[in-house]
Amino acid sequence: xxxxLTRPLAASRRVVLTxxxxxxxxxxxxxxxxxxxxxxxxxxxxxxxxxxxxFDHTNACEVHDFSPAEWVRGQQPESLGRASQFAVAGSRMAxxxxxxxxxxxxxxxxxxAIGTTDGEGxxxxxxxxxxxxxxxxxxxPAVARGVTPHRMPLAxxxxxxxxxxxxxxxxxACSAGNYAIGHGFDSIRGGEVEYALCGGAxxxxxxxxxxxxxxxxxAPDVCRPFDKDRKGILTGEGSGFVMxxxxxxxxARGARIHAEVLGYGLSCDAYHQVAPQQDGVARCMSAALxxxxxxxxxxxxxxxxxxxxxxxxxxxxRAIREVFGTTPPRTVSLKSMLGHTMGAASALGLIGxxxxxxxxxxxxxxxxxxxxxxxxxxxVPNMSVPADVRIAQNNSLAFxxxxxxxxxxRYGDR
Amino acid sequence: xxxxxxxxxxxxSVVSPYGLGKDVFAEGLHGARGTVTQLDVDHWRxxxxxxxxxxxxxxxxxxxxKGTRTMDRLTGLAVAAIGELLATTGVDDDxxxxxxTGLVLGTTIGSAQSTMDFIRPSYTxxxxxxxxxxxxxxxxxxxxxxxxxxWHRLKGPNAxxxxxxxxxxxxxxxxxxxxxxxxxxxxxxxxxxxxxxARSWLEHRSRGGERATAVPGEGCAVLMLxxxxxxxxxxxxxxxxxYNSVCLDSDFRQSVRACLLDLLGRAGASPSDVWAxxxxxxxxxxxxxxxxxxxxxxxxxxxxxxxxxxxxDTGCASAGFQIAAILAAAAEDEAxxxxxxxxxxxxxxxxxxxxxxxxxxxxx
Lengths: 414, 364
Description:
The complex is a heterodimer of chains A (about 425) and B (about 375). In chain A, about 35% of the residues lie in helices and about 20% in strands. With about 425 residues, chain A is an alpha/beta fold. The radius of gyration of chain A is 20 Å and the shape is globular. Helix content of chain B is about 40%, strand content about 20%. In chain B, strands 1, 2, 5, 6, 7, 8, 9, 10, 11 and 12 form a ten-stranded mixed sheet that branches. A two-stranded antiparallel ribbon of chain B has the order 3-4. Chain B is globular. At the A-B interface, helix 5, helix 6, helix 7, strand 6 and helix 8 of A face helix 5, strand 5, helix 6, helix 7 and strand 6 of B.
């Protein structure tokens, strides 16, 4: 028993997903994303966003042909950095999918919670380059002002004219999306807000790419999670957003319910700044199952953190077996398709889980040649499979041991 | 008896321009002693020549040489303050309790200095990946919370939330929901901001060359939050409500007023119940915010506790320092028992926030 949990407070409203929005290298919008997951589309391509001379490995999973003016209409698109534009796009799709009118949202108490790793990370690099050339007096004021990541949910609020809305910006690196969604879950369950627009967004970051390159963690060609010859990640970008509300609210307005959010768990390894730790990961999954009232045997598939690094995939597989036993659920990594989209990753993973539940399939781990014998899980290699998915688990394990796991269930089963 | 479902502030501590720990902080505030010092401009090369620094704060001297080789100043401030808090509350002797304790820190952008220092060689060296991998965790915004958890063996929920000047109240709202939802029974909550050349220039350039309204400060303020049913009778305060909202049109007066009245409404409280009302003096929005606080709560409550003029502009640590200052003052004044305190904050990017406390725990 870990975590010292108390029982959650009285007002335990059930929480459902009524809107989904996706911007990714394998599809924009739910229809394209679902199809991409079904067919196992790869988002990998040579990096275009920045100069790659001097780097050994130069692929990433970029969103091509993104047109800011198509999505950002409530403010000047160029006043927002790319990650904020992505957040607005993903939020817009989730709001439209939810069929909430803007008037309805504006008159209600809500929450916008966004997870991001880099925020407008490129702004920092611009300032550094200006400083190298001239000095810090050359920092562009607009660029300097634009570095703060909490501007992201404010940009979303501004886009849709929402003021009676709380904002929360979680910056827990690769698990930030799950954290944001978990916070939304707590906020709705506790009856403190009527809607929660939550998700994650990150734009391709040269600085992140440089860091992972230096660590030798960038894959030479594609990302191969759980593969014997896996060589690391491909960095990626995108955004994933969900609209959450209470079940009562959704039923009252006749909303379409994609899935139910059953609960979530958090833990901290408190072990190493970069390497994951099996105990910390297992504790997080156990906490999530407990919070959700779900037993391990009920989980039909796991969307793993599955970065494709040597360390992550083996530690995560072992933690899964520790919690689920010798026949764990099928465990896939969407990062094989999407690359590592940082703050967006777990949000995109969660939406993948919702679509799996809705449409009755498990997406594949693509680029798979031979499973690492040390990763004793069935990673559904290369081709999606039809499956009756009632409960799905979405893992995220960040640098610094910031772990977050969210569970979704098919609405109507419980 | 504590109200069920309410969160208690068991204790607090700080690393501040008065030094290490709550006692020197409380003494400094009580004596209204200023902490502005002249900077060695050759060392700092920053945009101003004065700041409120944590005196003599060298990470390796304060925390020792073991395990601190790659620890940056921001992380050192947080690790030191959390250490003070854990010692004050006696939790540092209890392994089981530490393992279940969470940590939520507010931030602006992590360490601007470490982030820029990390990436700079990539632009100046012969090869673009010539960066120091040991510095990568310092260049991540969650690096401080992660390193602090490793140092202090805190294995509960660990989160970093960004909110600029209002970050401390965003963190407080996040931590409060963790506790109310049963994810933890104890959470260390606060914020840390370092003085650095990088931060100095970022702030200076963000103002577009305008003068700062306050001298930059630094430090870390942390609270121990506990689910009320587990809190000791000696808890310092109950956290009745935390709220934030968005100012869409730069009319901070209107947004701050709406936020503070909403906060009072949630607790069924009235302005006359409020003994102290602290405002953030944040750049950009702080003047309007202060005017509203005075209008709503009166000048006696609004002037009860001064923070920025004594310890400087502490950025994302400011809300934590506002709370620490209120609790320090309340601990010395019986008139505070059972009274309310309001903490107001804002950030020029468009967020306004507030927290409502009932002082001296199980009152009324």
